[in-house]
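Why does this matter for the project? Reviewers at the last site visit asked to see concrete outputs rather than summary tables. In response, this paragraph embeds two records directly. Each consists of the residue sequence and, immediately after it, the corresponding structure tokens. Nothing has been edited or filtered.
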Amino acid sequence: MNVWLSVPLLALLLVGCAGKTAYRDSCAAELDAAWKEQSLAEAEGFAGTVSYSKAMALLTGAKTQQQFEAFHGCVEKAQKARFYLRESRAGR
């Protein structure tokens, strides 16, 4: 009887673990690209500085989510950070 309960529970746990790694590679790639773009970014004017600050806050949040294995949120934040870095370089 215990075996019949253990098998489905074990399967459920394994599926949960597999789901956590779905965005792992994307998270790492987006963060890598964003940090490279950040090192090249030159803020233009006040608006550019605001966009740059937003990008840095998002990158910090993305890195934190990566550490806690919240990879989907990490990808979203890193993509938004890259957007703000492009806006910063454009002076917006």
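We now turn to the second protein, recorded in exactly the same manner.
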Amino acid sequence: MSNTKTSTTPTSTVTRDVRQLDKETGNIYESIVIISKRANQIANNMKEELHGKLSEFSSSNDNLEEIFENREQIEISKHYERLPKPTLVAVDEFLHKKVYYRNPSKEA
């Protein structure tokens, strides 16, 4: 359903060596900003994808019984709940050099 999960991305919290995070940039704070911006992108993409899939089930005259009995909708929601959190995906992508970033102040 979603292409955000990779085989190496953990689905639960992982203890990280902080020194691994600043290897690429030389600055832990810059690395955290890059990771957080990427996590926001991933979260927004997942949210749009989920809303798109759930909107297929919405109708203008839903009654209460139809809302609680829609199994496909529940399965889609459960699938997204099982996916790794956007922050975990972003950290994994950053550590495996799958994130493009640039710092204009360093380039000048």
